[in-house]
């Protein structure tokens, strides 16, 4: 067992993540049926399979977030805690979109500090009364995790604020990152205490817990797990500045479904996966997925909505109408513009004030008439930036009011306090326009709330006859902007344009305002939080439907850990399994790929070693063996390298050229020997090579290949698709196949593939009375899959006897049509050496 002490970053590399705090007593598991649950020790093996007996319990969703949807207040006598649901919390209303019989369990921390001596009592109360599991973070972790890494580093980075200077945003601090990891591990321990991995879904929320998926996937390979990011995801140029960028990215990919508010955020995430991990996404029947080690990680794009019932409940309160009357009297004869924002450097409050100032300058008719009511909620974070923006806002308010003040009129009404939902609804009801000028925001539901409040209640007779209208001026950089097609979108940095937008909004004809309002209300009322929750959960169910049918392997250390999902029959090729069949066989066919199979792909020197030459020569020396090297390389290099192996068959350029032994002539196996099409393909490839920095052309005797591995990933991929279409068009009447592969586009003659090589050799051996009863085929890339497929079908087609021992083997654990795998080229050589030792030289 590894020590729990944490002294250096080697712990992170080895997967023994730091806890950095006192161990808390575990809560009992939440049980729905009688039974005994054994605890899982943190230091046991890295992966716990989900192959345990299924529980009789119904499905349950465990919602994990930084904070529980709970309000906790100290009682007046200071002897106990008063706990209640936080009706304003989004998490609380997720259950509205879930199946009625689904149990919901919450895991998170409280917003208040609880003394360690009271934590057990509070935890039990939360579990019994609210089905909430509290994660109490030690103060030294909480400060660095939340106020440090989350608020001073990740939050600014995800909102496009880079710390170019020490005084401008928080720079990466390794101790903050360690605290972030430690906090995520504490959350994972709480999940482990209550989870039934075969029946439960886990839904993780927001950037505070982005490495939690790795902790949970290490413990439960088949866990059904979703993640939703409620903040923006930055462009790859910004994200790649984060020193732990790959750790976070790989951890997120351990979830089954990753959700974003907008396509822009999802696109940035997919771009990062492509540039840093080489992953390509696919869109199929409207769903976006990333192939990651045999798993398909779903990408969900769905903006969150508001809780309609909650807002309607606020609108129905009696004091709301009284407040509306008071406000109408206060702003009688005035046109009210409204801003409701948190005190945050990204909310653009001062830009809104500057736009209002510009409006009054450019359009004097609004002086004495237009009023901007700006409500600012207390800041969630703290720091120098918050204090600076506060001072800037106060200075702007004072300057604008001093400049345009008239008797009984101040253009800016600044409310710097927490406003109750009822009071906020009253302000919404009297505002002609709401302006949101955030420079970056994940979603922002203020416009949605405004639209519903302007609509009012359907049973409200006093307002049902009057037409409903509302106007919105929203920043194009906020998550709700794409869904509000009737809003006036602005670049908040352009204060003159924003001022014109404000003027347009309050000057617009009532009929136009009504039409825009009706369009918005129809969307907002149907796409509420229940709709969002239901849509996400349905996609999570769909993504996870095959979890328990697949064979899963946990591989990798620390945040490099991932689950490889494989066919249930896919297993490692062992010496015992193959030696027995090899020894009994009377006629053997052996197919070997070269690059990535016999020689590592990363090797600079591609020449075969003396060991490889000796092993292959020994295998070829057995009369029972027909050994073929099947490669995409040219025939000249292969025949030169393997000149000592006189009995070795070679299929070069994927089988276009074939030679049974060194004493035989080369055969051409394509459907046509006319290579005139090369003169058409070459100029096209040269054109794209000149336009794509980092790309190159490889000319073979029978084919031509365009490589873009060293080009910009996004541009190279785009150019390859364009080239593929271009080549298919100009070569439509030529006897060639145009194919795309991993960072390549290849044009080669029709009727050429490694699979056809295997078919030809099987047929020839059978005709010569040597039908193989033992077949070994080892390869590592996409072209070898054609061989695996042909070999797998050969028995069914009668090409091979039903008694034939077939060993189709790929290199590395990955999705493949082969039934076996070996971990690397070293294991391939070791396996071949074992077979060579059992071979009988022909002279004996």
Write the layout of secondary structure elements.
Elements: H1 10-14, E1 60-67, E2 70-74, E3 81-85, E4 103-109, H2 116-130, E5 132-134, H3 139-158, H4 174-194, E6 200-205, H5 212-219, E7 224-228, H6 236-239, H7 245-252, E8 257-260, H8 263-277, E9 281-284, E10 287-292, E11 295-301, H9 308-315, H10 318-330, E12 335-342, H11 349-362, E13 370-377, H12 384-404, E14 412-415, H13 421-430, E15 433-436, H14 446-455, H15 461-464, E16 472-475, E17 488-490, H16 495-507, H17 510-526, H18 529-543, E18 551-555, E19 562-566, E20 571-572, H19 575-584, E21 588-592, H20 610-620, E22 625-630, H21 635-641, E23 649-652, E24 657-659, E25 667-668, H22 678-691, E26 696-699, E27 704-707, H23 713-730, E28 736-741, E29 744-749, H24 754-767, E30 774-779, H25 782-794, E31 805-811, E32 820-822, H26 825-837
Parallel strand pairs: 1-4, 1-6, 4-5, 6-7, 7-8, 8-11, 12-13, 12-15, 13-14, 15-16, 16-17, 20-32, 21-22, 21-30, 22-23, 30-31, 31-32
Antiparallel strand pairs: 2-3, 9-10, 10-11, 18-19, 23-24, 24-25, 26-27, 27-29, 28-29
